[in-house]
Amino acid sequence: MLIDSPRLTDADRKAWTRLERYDRALAADPRWTSREDRAHKTIREFAEAGQCYASTSWGKDSTVVAHLVATSGVRLPLVYVRMRRWENPDCLTVRDAFLGEYGDRVDYHEYWVDGGPRWWDNIEFSDRKGQHTRGQFTGPEKEFGSRHITGVRAEESRMRDMVIARWGEAGPGACRPIGRWTAVDVFAYLCRHDLPVHPAYAMSCGGHYDRRWLRVSPIGGITQAHRGRADWERTYYPDIVEEP
What we know:
Blueprint: H1 10-27, H2 32-48, E1 53-56, H3 60-70, E2 77-83, H4 90-102, E3 107-115, E4 123-126, E5 132-134, H5 138-144, E6 148-149, H6 158-167, E7 174-175, H7 183-192, H8 227-236
Parallel strand pairs: 1-2, 1-6, 2-3, 6-7
Antiparallel strand pairs: 3-4, 4-5
Helix pairs in contact: 1-7, 3-7
Organism: Cutibacterium porci
GO molecular function, one term: catalytic activity
InterPro entries: PAPS_reduct_dom, Rossmann-like_a/b/a_fold
């Protein structure tokens, strides 16, 4: 279920409709049952081995993982770390739609972080008492420990591919139940379970951008090396992007 947004154009919606037909065909594959069973088993075994939490950004991968956690049979903390200045506002519409359906199956928590223009290099965490420390997941780790369940996938980068090749779907500190899935698999799963889909994935300039590589990460602070991302942000989120 694509979450609507006034930022989407008619051309964006038409391009998405074409892709949705593809998603529906893949979602009907009978092999999904065994694939979901495997992911659920991975999550349960990781949770049984010790205290842990699941993280989400409300992007495609972490929404799938949030659903897998919610339907795994174990009730776990689900954590969303929010960026004060740079948060993508459409993440909240995905959050509300998901929690409206599955909120009673997870223990949901939010944490705030502050960062400068290069937010990924300079993040400070604000806990519930207003105390500040560095590190995006400092807050969740204080409450739930460092073991976590994530939507990391091997397809996304060489480094992630190497990590998953070494540890598989679950190592001692991290669980990656969709680690070997492709982005195509992820979109099919979202369609299969009618899960909320962040509108950023349809913000394709009418099909110019490949939705597989669009991100819902915080807006702004993009360097020259990421010019394509910066152009996309200025097109769809000009009200949030920090002007030079």
